[in-house]
Amino acid sequence: MMIEALIAVALLGALITFVAPNRIAGKLAFAISLVPAAISLWLFTAFDGSGNALLDGELAFESQLAWLEIGDYSISWFVGLDGISLPLVVLTTILCTLATVSSWTPIDERESQFYGLILFIEANLIGVFSALDFFVWFIFWEAVLIPMYLLIGIWGGPRRKYAAIKFFVYTNVASLVMFGSFIALVFGLGDSVTSFALPEIATAMVNGGPEGLFGLGGTALASVVFIGMFLGFAVKVPIVPFHTWLPDAHVEAPTPASILLAGVLLKMGTYALLRFNFTMFPDQVEAYAVPIAAIAVISVIYGAMLALAQTDLKRIVAYSSVSSMGYVILGLVAYTQFGIGGATFQMISHGLISGLMFMAVGVIYNATHTRMVTDMSGMADRMPIAVGILIAGAFGYMGLPLMSGFAAEYFIFFGSFGSELLAYSAVFTSLAMFGIVIVAGYLLFALQRTVFGPYRLETDYEVGRAPVHDVASMVVLLGLIIALGVAPDLIFDMITDAIDPIIGGER
Amino acid sequence: MAVFELPDWMALAPALILAGTALVLFLLDSIDPHSTNRSLLAGTAIVGSLASLAVAVWYTAAGVGATGIENHGVIDVMNGQFVVDQLALYFMIIIAVVTALVAVASYDYLRDHTYQAEYYSLVILAATGMSMMAASNSLVTIFIALELTSLPSYALVAILKDNRGSVEAGLKYFLIGALSSAIFVYGVSLVYGATGSLQLEAIAGALESSDQNVVEMGGLLGLGILMLIGGIAFKTASVPFHFWAPEAYEGAPAPISAFLSSASKAAGFVLAFRVFATAFPLEATTAVIGVDWTLAFGILAIVTMTVGNFAAATQENVKRMLAYSSIGHAGYVLIGLAALSADGGDAVMGAAMMHLLVYGFMNTGAFLFVGLAEYWGVGRTFEDYNGLSKQAPFACAAMAVFMFSLAGVPPFAGFASKYLLYTATIEAAADNTILLVLAAALVINSALSLYYYSRLVKALWIEEPILDRERLAQPTGLYAAIIAAAVLTVLILPAFSPIADAATEAATAIIV
After folding, report:
1. Among residues B354, B349, B391, which one has the least CA distance to residue B373?
2. Which of A10, A369, A406, A436 lies closest to A157, judged by CA?
3. CA-CA distance, B481 to B98, in Å (whole number)?
4. How confident is the model at residue B364 (pLDDT cuts 50, 70, 90)?
């Protein structure tokens, strides 16, 4: 019942924070969020699962309770963790705790509601990564939208209403497409499936696939569902050309919401792709590998080029996420141990690094009230520690060895270069590698302008050192990034253990 | 094993308790005609409706009306004029819950109002009629119960005597209501003319007997059924008899709008379910009149949900938006009747009933929030609601729950019940492809509805207020009712399974 405890603490904490007075809400939410963080770290040390949750693996902290019957299908409260989901749950709880800390400075109105929503989002994110019944999973999946919509809409920047609605409409329409596709699949599977439990559906898919539905044959139905679900998740990831909501949402969102959005929400998309498309439809992955890899490479290059063209520090970091998520897709479609494992590793790594970058940008913005690269110069003089961490984070993004970004990208390229399933894999990998050069280009370019040189900033604000609590939370993230970079085995063994059943164990 | 046996008529206790409460209220009024002792009057109404709820829940739990249980089972009262089965008890629960919420909320809303006792007794009388409707098993008792609901409702809509909108709404509602009553009773007489019976099972028996006299009356019977559908469409505010609803809901005091759009609608549906499932068995009726009547409900469902949602999307006035959206929800529930001809139709109808229960909470809550806004005097349009969350975060959080739940967004109960309805319809569609269109219409309309529901959330939470407001009072009764409705909207999820089972069993029992 540990997963239930995690979710319950976050939910109850959200309620308590919502009714608490504004004055203490920030500290209270931080104190409450330490509990799930501690529990999830304990889960990490006590983890005893093996194999893949959907493919007959041994789940850790599993619990299943019958809930309701819909026609011939039963729905149950079914949660559990395997090597793929556990690191993501830990990432969620840690980032949520740090996000509350980094809200202390910028959030100065309606605090109790703000922190309540952060904890509510945390509960739902944990649910997304641990639920193993489609119904339960979908509830958490959609419920993430509401608090994020409000976080952007209430506490966001000048164009927050536009950004919030764009975010909501884009991702909600995508969810409907995905939802419809999945229901069609379940009905198409016929009598071999009697519940919405994902392991049962995955097993049925591996053992022969759908029979067909409403005049569509089995293979055709599987293809339609594969494409429908891919499109649904592609928006969440986001993949070019469905990425336009992301920069708007990021730029308008308050810093803590950006941290969660880039750090965890984008991973929902790639996690779902891995769990649904890449686990349940091996044949379709093979059939559509080349177009998917092409989309991935386009996302990498195009996202990096867009970042290169930005002058707003936050937009640069936002677009770079499009690029980083492209690597994840490339790793997935490689369909090798290192490819999928590296993609999963990159989800964690990017969560930490982009969280750190948004935090650093937020700290600079809190001090200077500007994010424009052109306005800033020589920030290193005034905020040496925060800027030092920003530079370290940028190096992590560029994939400097001994940081988690390097390990992730190395795994992905190693896995995709030798992929047997993906035709022209060497070409795709080489093209994607070129993205690293552009990443280094725009990050160095931005750092050069903002950080180095003489201090020159026309602002009415006193620009001084960053507050201790902000620095502390950035240091925690940096420590994790370096730890994973030095010792990827901390989580990589766990991940590959869960990946191997997907690719048949030996590839 | 019961310790003592209750007489059969006690099975109607949930309705009888409401009737008794109304009489007590009359008594209180005659002792002190101009009493404005709100605590006493509202308290009586609340206690009465809660007692009715408690008894209905007790009966359900004890297995009254359940088929196949020794010593209990379906209870016929007055030679089958009334019947107490699971369906009846299920709807009595919905009606009692909504009545209790409305009575609690009215405590504050009616402050400084002259006709306190009249108001509460009319509410309870209307609730009595609705409860009776749930158990009526003959076209005569149905008509009496229908009128017992309608007459107090007309008066309640117009009870703000000094408000022109209220009076005008009451008049419109009365005129259209009278017309539809006439249509309904004409339909009843035609059905009687064709089959020679008023009792529902007897009508079914006459149709199934393939008596030559009945078969020759096919046209007459068809016309009668059409007119019955018309009367039901009025009561459930379905297209094309929906025009009264936005007017009446807008003009009426907000708690009454909540009452009419939730409880009265549920009562209309139970009537439709019972009449059509019991009295007009599909095959026999189709053989006589030559048309499958579920087709009519299929068309009605699509038109109703589409018209309701599109009209709601264009409203500037919050109360009218809610009124049109409640028309849209009537369309969703009508799917339950449209699916009756298909295999698995009982599951669809159970899902539709489940949606009505969830709807009872979320829609009542939404209208009560509008009542709260009227109490504050903040105006009626979306703009007037801007930024209310700054002054009243709890009520606005509850309203956000209602809006997202009505739109069918997880994790709220509205999602679960729509999902149930959707999957059940898809499953039944294997048998009857028209249902596929209905399921698609449900999803598309549901997605569309998110637009206007989220617009209200946006106004409350994201927009800045257009003018500075004084500190807003926090009336206990209204707050209690709204928060209770919100909590129930969320808490129904863990308990979804037994309730959904009960609904499906109730549906199965009357279909077979």
Report:
1. B391
2. A369
3. 10
4. very high
Hey, what are B358's tokens?
């969830």
Q: Can you tell me which residue has the tokens 């969320």?
A: B490
Question: What single letter denotes the amino acid at residue B118?
Answer: E
Closest CB to B423: pick one of A140, A142, A183: A183
User: Does residue B294 register a pLDDT over 90?
Assistant: no
pLDDT the model gives residue B1: 45
pLDDT of residue A53: 86
Q: Is A75 helix (H, G, I), strand (E, B) or coil?
A: strand
Q: Min CA distance, A153 vs chain B (Å)?
A: 6
Task: Give A342 to chain B, closest Cα distance, Å.
Answer: 32
Partner-chain contact B423 A18, CB within 8 Å: no
From chain B, pick out residues whose CB is under 8 angstroms from the CB of A113: 389, 393
Q: What φ, ψ does residue B19 adopt, rounded to 5°?
A: -60, -45
* pLDDT band at residue B67 using 50, 70 and 90 as cut-offs: low
Q: How many CB pairs under 8 A join A and B?
A: 82
Interchain CB distance below 8 Å, B409 and A165: no
Q: CA angle, A492 as apex, A487 and A498 as ends, to 5°? A: 165
CA distance B50 to B55: 9
Q: Which of A110, A141, A146 is opposite residue B404, by nearest beta carbon?
A: A146
Query: Residue range B456-470: average pLDDT?
Result: 84
H or E element, residue B380: none
Strands A216-217 and B75-77 turn out to be unpaired
Question: Using the beta-carbon criterion (under 8 Å), do A139 and B454 form an inter-chain contact?
Answer: no
Whether B399 has its CB under 8 Å from any CB of chain A: the answer is no
* pLDDT confidence of residue A126: 95
Q: What share of chain B is helix, strand, coil (3-state, %, to 5)?
A: 75, 5, 20
What distance in Å separates residue B504's CA from the closest CA in chain A?
Answer: 10
pLDDT tens per residue across span B305-323:
999 999 998 989 999 999 9
Portion 155-174 of A in contact with B at CB < 8 A: 160-161, 164-165, 168, 172-173
In the structure, what pLDDT confidence band is assigned to residue B69 with cuts at 50, 70 and 90?
low
- State how far Cα A482 lies from the chain centre: 19
- B334: exposed, middle or buried (Cβ count in 10 Å: 0-12, 13-18, 19+): buried
DSSP H helices in A309-378? 313-334, 337-368
| Beta-bridge partner residues of A361 | none
Cα–Cα distance for residue pair B207/B200, rounded to 1 Å: 11
Low-confidence ranges of chain A (pLDDT < 50): 506-507
Task: Tell me the CA distances in angstroms from B338 to B86, B272, B332, B348, one per residue in order.
Answer: 21, 11, 10, 9
Return the exposure string of A87-111: e unless at least 16 CB atoms fall within 10 Å of the residue's CB, then b.
bbbbbbbbbbbbbbbbbbbebeebb
Taking all residues of chain B, what is their mean pLDDT, rounded to a whole number? Answer: 86
Q: What pLDDT score does A506 carry?
A: 42
Cα distance between residue B495 and residue B501, in whole Å = 10
The token pair at A489 is: 């085995």
Contact call for A139 and B423, based on CB within 8 A = no
Q: Whole-angstrom Cα distance, residue B135 to residue B87?
A: 8
- With CB atoms and an 8 Å threshold, state whether B420 touches A173: no
B458–chain A Cβ distance below 8 A for any pair: yes
Assess contact for A305 and A320: CB atoms under 8 A. no
Interface of A with B in 94-113 (CB under 8 A): 110, 113
B390 touches chain A (CB under 8 A): yes
Distance of alpha carbon B350 from alpha carbon B509, whole angstroms: 11
Chain B residues touching A149 at Cβ < 8 A = 454
In terms of CA atoms, which chain B residue is nearest residue A127?
B411
